[in-house]
Amino acid sequence: MASKIKADQFETLDGSGNITLNNSVTMASGKTLPAASLTGALPAISGASLTGVTSVGGATGVDFNDDVKIRSGTGNDLEIYHNGTNSIIKNSTGITKIQADDIRIQSADDSESLAKFVKDGAVSLYYNDSLKLNTGNSGVSITGNIDVTGAITGNAASGIGKVLQVKNQVQATEVTSNSATYTDTGCSLSITPTATTSKILVISSNDCTKYGADTAVAIRCYRDSTEIGGTIIGRRICDSDNSDKEQAIFSFTVLDSPNTTSAVTYKTQYNNTYAGGTVRINAGSGSSTFCLMEIGA
Fold first, then answer.
1. Which of 11, 87, 88, 156 is buried most, with the most CB atoms less than 10 Å from its CB?
2. Which residues contact residue 133 at a Cβ distance below 8 angstroms, ignoring those fewer than 6 apart?
3. Mean pLDDT for all residues in the chain
4. CA 70 to mean position of chain CA atoms
């Protein structure tokens, strides 16, 4: 027996065949719903496929709850969703491409730049909205210090020959000797090379003053317990003006190859060869300087 359609099941039924329903519609198996214009909130649809939909959300946008994913691709290869804490773009196949001629990554409130990527232009990286790294036609420019952890390899370690780090000391503490036995000057620095191929340039300037009779001063340099460069300075401080006090600055440089990435300590020692008088390092207001530079080999 055929079912009857009651008038109260329709809200309106006009002469053009447009039907407004008060209740739900259940489609028989294998049947299709003719092209329709739906307004208002779209009800839940179960077991159906929508085709011909060209826009979703309209002026009010589309809202998705946490962990509800926008999925694209036959195998749902691309997923975009928010899990309640983080926002996630997940691609499980192929390459993920962002294609644009000018890409800007900004802070959430759009007040600071984090990174910029411009076609045929610069790649720029920022820290606290301050430009730190910028690429250009001639290479890369960096604002600020470069801190290296681990070994530098490739061209950076084998060919550029640039200063990789610097250690410096100003030594003003006075030390005194009237013996031919070598004594520490107080100049001592440790450095950890970033590559085994690096060289360490040692630059030393020593303030020496003799008191009393003529003296001859020798200064030598050590890497840990190994003397490097031989006896650097062997110089006599003479009593040229018949006074008991004469001052001289002894300076030297040594280029050393420690062949290690472990910490090494460099220092200088001096002696009073003639022992005719007293040699004082950094006497009075004098001071000595000691500098180590790591040079990329």
1. 156
2. 123, 124, 125, 140, 141, 142, 143
3. 80
4. 34
Identity at 281, one-letter amino acid code: I
Q: 87, 92, 96, 88: which is closest to 75 by C-alpha?
A: 92
Which residues are CB-contacts of 290 (< 8 A; sequence separation ≥ 6)?
Answer: 168, 169, 171, 187, 188, 189, 202, 203, 204, 266, 268
Q: What is the pLDDT of residues 66-102, one digit of tens each?
A: 999 999 998 899 999 999 999 999 999 999 999 999 9
pLDDT digits (tens, 9 = 90+) for 14-30: 666 566 666 666 666 66
Alpha helices in the chain (DSSP H): 155-158
Is 121 in the same domain as 88?
A: no
Domain that holds residue 182: 166-295
33 located within any domain: no
Residues 175 and 289 in one domain: yes
Percent of the chain with pLDDT over 90: 42
| Residue 18 within a domain | no
The string of DSSP codes covering 250-268 is EEEEEEE----SS-EEEEE
Helix (H, G, I), strand (E, B) or coil at 7: helix
- 278 in the same domain as 219: yes
The contacts of residue 149 (CB under 8 Å, 6+ apart) are none
Distance separating alpha carbons of residues 172 and 207, to the nearest angstrom: 9
Specify whether 227 is located in the same domain as 271: yes
Q: Give the max Cα distance, the chain.
A: 140
For residues 141-159, give the mean pLDDT.
Answer: 64
